[in-house]
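Thread: Newbie trying to understand structure tokens

Hi all, I'm a second-year student working on a class project, and my supervisor (Dr. K.) asked me to get a predicted structure for one chain before our next meeting. I've only ever worked with sequences, so writing a 3D structure as a token string is new to me. If someone could post the tokens and maybe explain what I'm looking at, I'd be very grateful. Here's the chain:
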Amino acid sequence: MKAVYINAPGPADTLIFGGLPQPQARVGEVLVRVRAVAVNPIDTYIRAGMVKVNLPLPFIVGCDLAGVVEACGTEAKRFKAGDRVWCSNQGLAGRQGTFAEFACVEERWLNATPANVRDEDAAAVSLVGITAHLGLFAKARLQAGETIFINGGAGGVGSMVVQLAKAAGARVVATAGSDERVAKARSFGADLALNHRTQDVAAAVKEFAPAGVNVFWETQREPDFDKAVLLLALRGRFVLMAGREARPVFPVGPFYVKDCSLHGFAMFNATADEQRGCADDLNRWLAEGKVRANIDRVLPLSEAAAAHRLQEESTLQKSGALAGKIVLKP
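---
Reply by user tm_fold:
Sure, no problem. This is what the structure looks like when written as tokens:
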């Protein structure tokens, strides 16, 4: 089978698009014929060796996939050949990744794909959708009628936070770095979308939510806590999901006198059962049209190295080249 893999961690140019033996489903596993995968920042960190994990070599990169069940190993009972499925959380904890024509996935990580949802959309939503769901509901415990501020509401995770918050009945404020991205955040359901480069965000938020926002979601790698805490309401919740190397100054006094709470999390720490609960909601909202994928571009799997470079330019160098997910198709 064709796959994208590395023989050792390194830059994007170390990615090899070539032939590897097709895997066979073992006990509790499902063999999936891959139809679409998505590129995530974590994929580039693992490939580059920035995140230290034990990798089976050669190592197939990638966390997300959507495809069709080809065969089931013994004790895998939830799916049958021909079923459409999607998943995330691959390429970790000794598991091979998804950037290949076939992938073996433990059944517990798989979710059914709704009939009216494309494989490209299912793949694009998987990691970012589960991340948004965990942060909003398991961590911040967002409630209908509350106000949430998303710093970066047009990107992969941010656009999902906007949509899931709206699906839950919240009032949504989102920022972006260009008028085009502001319009995109608005199209995903933001009640108030602001250009943080040209508008007075603090003044606009104060007018929209005089008592402050109940939840502040930070997508950026270097949070400005001084500005954020000013926007939080009494008992506001701050959600962090990025910035492994960040060491920002934290305004302890203004934070604790508001009875605020800080929630950091990584979706990979969530169990299969916890992630499946997120997936059930995502599937329902996708099928109902309340949530849609934010895809920047679709490329062939053979262009994985170029896709990784583009993702790194956007994430690490803040080039602004991407406003959504890169999807690759075998």
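A couple of things are worth pointing out once you decode it. The longest strand covers residues 29-39. The mean pLDDT is 95. Feel free to ask follow-ups in this thread.
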